[in-house]
Amino acid sequence: MIDSISRVWGADSIAVVFSSSGNFAPFTYTTILSLVDCSNKINKYDIIILETDMNFNQKKMFEQLIGDRQNISIRFYNVLKILSNYNLSTNLYWTNDCYVKLLIPDILIEYTKAIYLDSDMIIKDDIAILYNFDMKNASIGACRDPGIIARICVLHMNDEKHAICRKYINEKVCIKEKNLINFFCTATLLLNLDNIRVAYSSDDMMSYAMKNNFVHLDMDVFNSLFQDNVVFLPLEWGWAATNNDNSDYIGRLYPSAPRELYNEFISAGRNPKIIHYGGPNKPWIVIDRAAAEDFWIVFRRTPFYNSFIEQHLSVVQYKIMLSNYNKLNSAVKSLQRTEALYHQWIDRLAKTLPYRLLRRIF
Fold this sequence. Notes:
Strand content: 5-15%
Radius of gyration: 28 Å
CATH superfamily of the largest domain: Spore Coat Polysaccharide Biosynthesis Protein SpsA, Chain A
Strand order of the largest sheet: 3-2-1-4-7-6-8
């Protein structure tokens, strides 16, 4: 049984859901700050953070984020206990937090509609525009994923890796052949909660995820269950910040996506409404990532910035010291080896020199 939450305002409020751990709090804060920057005073924004281990001080910082704005609410809902009921698969890049979005229909039982956004984003336009997008009675609104579509539909199908990926998507995720070119990303989701609840409960979706041990976690769940009940959002609402060069594997895939999809991706990148920093190379890790400056402009204004920089500098200084120590240690060992060879030479000389002198005398 999942405890639901009540509305802060009436049916005209815009519910926006995030998920966050304590470690990810600085970046969730950054995403929400960018949302607040683009908000309109005529709208009411009901921001709900589904968290696992955020502490009191972190939550206080979030509550202070909105200042005296009367049209924005920020609340927290701990999902750790719910997640513990399921033995869910994870991988190197994604954690249990990814599955949190499957809980939204039951947690927001009083809501008919909601937006879910990942916490590695920068929002560049009023999220109310997305909320009012015509879903045409579909259950899900999402952006197609050019990277995965390129892997499963177009790129090097004679390559064993891509053939395996296509087979997995087709057979394990059960995506129909006609829907392969429509595989969507779940970083930005527009949710018709009434429709979803008619089809599946949150427990249904979580159990489905647990049973199948999917590679792409929640993304495979949504694509599998709603592949015939999705409306596609313009890519500008989930533009993936990629470097289209040899430094970015995913970026290299995009040009091999269907031409119309790749053209839409390029067009969306000229004026994105949401920038999504998917994958492991986050802009706070790889500072020359595409559109990283958009992240840093907002992040510098957060209360997490100074401590993050201090910690980062400490790590850098530690790495420099460790490198210098290793170099010095290597030099010492080299000297020790040289000294050992020198003593061996002296010992041999001491043993053989008298013999050589006697042979010369006699």
